[in-house]
Protein: FAD-linked oxidase C-terminal domain-containing protein
Amino acid sequence: MERVVTTGLVPSLLEVMDNTCICAVDDLLKADLDRGAHALLVAQSDAGGEAAVREIEALAQLCREAGADLVHSTDDPAEGDLLLQARRMALPALEQLGSTLIDDVAVPRSRIAEFLDGCDAIAAGRALTIGVVGHAGDGNMHPTICFDPADADQRERAFAAFDDILELGLSLGGTITGEHGVGAIKVDWLEREIGPVALDVHRAIKDALDPAGLLNPGKVFRRAGVRDLAAVGTSAFVDLTAVGPG
Structure:
């Protein structure tokens, strides 16, 4: 993925999905996907005409040089839509396996493969199904943990895996959120990424703009951890004001 950018290619779409997602989508769509593939990379060019052909062929060559087992390209819009359908159906396919806890971790493009392998290791260690889809062009990944929220042990392991994934992302030089923001579930990780000084700056800005604490109270600067959310159940995503402001 890194070479796509460093060589100057600018595809309009560059998406990746891991083997767990490939198999889940194949189960759902009966699409005859390669269930043995470690990952699937989908690219699209909007350059138009011969420029698009050259861009896709250059990208395909990079994939071959990287050791891809199968590289396929098409200029048929209908066939292209079918190829993209696999990526679009990744989340619905994972939802067939249970409730989903979706993460939003971004890592350097050069570390995406390590991130996928790391998530596989976390899934094995926590005895859970974790599928990863993501935007390979900017390194923004969406690990999705499948679990039964009615099973206390599974719920605990799912939230522990969520922490493991955040730790993995930071260890690879990434960030705990690529596009969706910190939100309620990651607030205890904010200081670990930006440091205490930066967090104090955030608090000072919040106090200056909202001295009475009326705006979204208790949502960002609380001290509770992600496992506290697991203890009180998924309803904690709706209202965390009872936890108290930071």
